[in-house]
């Protein structure tokens, strides 16, 4: 299959690109190379005859038309987005432009290309979204996000992603564009940009800096190893039912404090401090405004219909992740100079 992946120089997109090429798919990676991108993430496939890169902004209709006409993909996997909630609080405009207008331009470009090609039923527009569109759950393990949960986004990031999900469904209902959607929980793993919680904790711990925990650390997230997410996404683009959405999660609910303590324990074992534990560096800081209390995915549909299972537990995945950061210092050091990295963002006023 020839897949046009948007955002393939980012964290999850690059995992999709690497996995797709390793499985023999052709990939066209379309990425604007924003502050969050790193072409090093796809260096392992860059010389493959199955891989092509196009630097383009998904808001640029003319560039998208040229890319579709040149590469003639069988499917689109649309991951390009502004993705950091804290940045969406400080500067929501970029989230509206890329996540909403960019998705609109992608849908229009895909629709024109698909129509020109005679509307093949086999074409897929796979929109990759987040569980954050569903809002915040009560602290009750029996209640989880299903595909039927009503949307209730609460941050500029999640509301822009929710808008894009609605656009994708509308292009299916109105124009018949063959779409599939996925909503996934929090990812972690190799190549995670060093402004997100897991890398921040690992890198601050190693640098002897405070490990910042928002509020009381009791916010719960459902953690999934990025390579398991990439595997689920390829399954959905190949076998997902037309017009259907799938929730993806690892059933690994942890409070932020539990997650951070687990990371500290792994680091204590792998790179012991001269004295004490990395957990001694934990520092509670002012909470994020509108911080959702709990996210948890019910993955019954993707398990039952597509037989998907994550390959690692959260403990195994975190262990692999910590080891990756210990082994790849050159990668993360180069990104620490980028604008905003290492600063406290998203406090609002
Ligand atoms: N990170 C998570 O835990 C998570 C969970 C569920 C869903 N998602 C979704 O998965 C997707 C990828 O997330 P991520 O964490 O890999 O993000 P990321 O920030 O690491 O990467 C985003 C990529 O998109 C590119 N991009 C941004 N704006 C662009 C534009 N206008 N035109 C072209 N390219 C542009 C960036 O250059 C970057 O390479 C997003 O749509 C996000 O909403 C993320």
TrEMBL record:
Catalytic reactions of this protein: dTDP-alpha-D-glucose = dTDP-4-dehydro-6-deoxy-alpha-D-glucose + H2O
One record GO biological process: nucleotide-sugar metabolic process
Domain of life: Bacteria
Boundaries of every NAD(P)-binding domain copy: 4-321
The protein's required cofactors: NAD(+)
Keywords: Lyase, NAD
SUPFAM superfamilies: NAD(P)-binding Rossmann-fold domains
Any coiled-coil regions, as ranges: none
CDD domains assigned to the protein according to its UniProt record, in alphabetical order: dTDP_GD_SDR_e
GO molecular function (one): dTDP-glucose 4,6-dehydratase activity
Enzyme Commission number: 4.2.1.46
InterPro entries: dTDP_Gluc_deHydtase (IPR005888), NAD(P)-bd_dom (IPR016040), NAD(P)-bd_dom_sf (IPR036291)
A Pfam family reported for this protein in Swiss-Prot or TrEMBL: GDP_Man_Dehyd
UniProt family annotation: Belongs to the NAD(P)-dependent epimerase/dehydratase family. dTDP-glucose dehydratase subfamily.
Name this protein carries in UniProt: dTDP-glucose 4,6-dehydratase
Species per Swiss-Prot/TrEMBL record: Mangrovicoccus algicola
Lineage: Bacteria, Pseudomonadati, Pseudomonadota, Alphaproteobacteria, Rhodobacterales
Gene coding for it: rfbB
